[in-house]
Amino acid sequence: MFKIKTSRRQFLGGFAALPSFNLFSPRALAGRPEDRLVHDYYAELGVEPFINAVGPYSSLGGAKMWPEVIDAMAYAIENKARMTDIHDAVGKRIAELLTAEAAMVTSGATGALMLATAACMTMGDLEKNERLPDTTDMANEVIILKSQRYLYDRSIRAPGAKLVEIESISQATDAINDKTAMLFFLLNRSDETGIDVQGYIRIAKQYGIPILCDAATTVPPVKKIAETVRAGFDLICYSGGKGLRGPYSAGLLLGRKDLIGYARQHASPNHRAYGRSMKVAPEEYLGMMVAVETSLNFDEEKEYQRQLDLVDYMGRELSGLNGVSVSTHVPAEEAREPYIEVNWDERYAISPGGVKQLLRDGKPCIEIRALFLSGGRLHLTASMLEESQAPVIVKRIKEILDANAKNRLGRLEST
Which of 7, 8, 290, 352 fits 378 for a cystine, CB–CB 3.0-4.6 Å? Predict the structure, then answer.
């Protein structure tokens, strides 16, 4: 099965991950018309498309890359340079753009967490580098708030670190000892707004211990990155394929020049590095740089209003149903992506989990936020929605609720 794509940019995006066959060499492209035949790979594989009412989740493939990023990646695929040179130049440029002392492109935010932790445990000691993940007789403890334990803290433990839980920041001083390698803070935990972040950073500075911040999902707006850098964290990690709309397998680690240098010791292309397997391709280096440049020049207010208009539309339509209430929210710490929360009363004999499953199983498939992240409620976002998809979502939810209305079920039972 084939479909026509008329844009050169779209065409290059479709083949960015493929080997450079002669048919698609620059010379061949230059001598052929702009219309190209491109495989509809998903259709051929039987992979079902879906409507994304969640956001740029990892399990759903992340955000759509900027067209400029696709062009940059295509350039890097065709034009080779030494990896260390690309690493140096891209890191310097990204650091300048985001007002950080230093920066490096990583294999996602998870890769950044692992490399940052390894750096703080070894601090450039080549003998210790060689021993990872065996951290015997080295500082290997990472202090973390018990309330901030989360899905990805396993990445901190991966290089051999031990997590030391504290109930509050006031306990951090007592927890620090000669085995403490790093303090950790999760910025995108919306229920932790009462934490004295600056107090936590001051403790780290007082004892000369690096503090790492996971800010993976806190953009847009992109200007928040510079604000987080100014807050004083020694290291900060970001996801590349969410709010920044870069390559989804890439991420960023920003921070102190010495610590970024130590993190690089653990990364590819170093042959015996602990993080050798967490490779970053040349096109991802360049793609992340262009993603940052493009994001900084993007009209985020206009995009925010577009999303707000879409969720407001869905909210108005759904709140017109008897027994259904809708409220609009904007996350405090996470990416500024408005969403609606939909609730219904006992007249509907279905749970949010039941609605979620029916939306997933329907035609078209519709994905909504995971219930463990939404407090068990039905949440709808618009960051990944096209305008034409919002009415489809509303129509499907109305159908599901109507089919599970108790009075309707009673009528059916009496016939």
Answer: 352
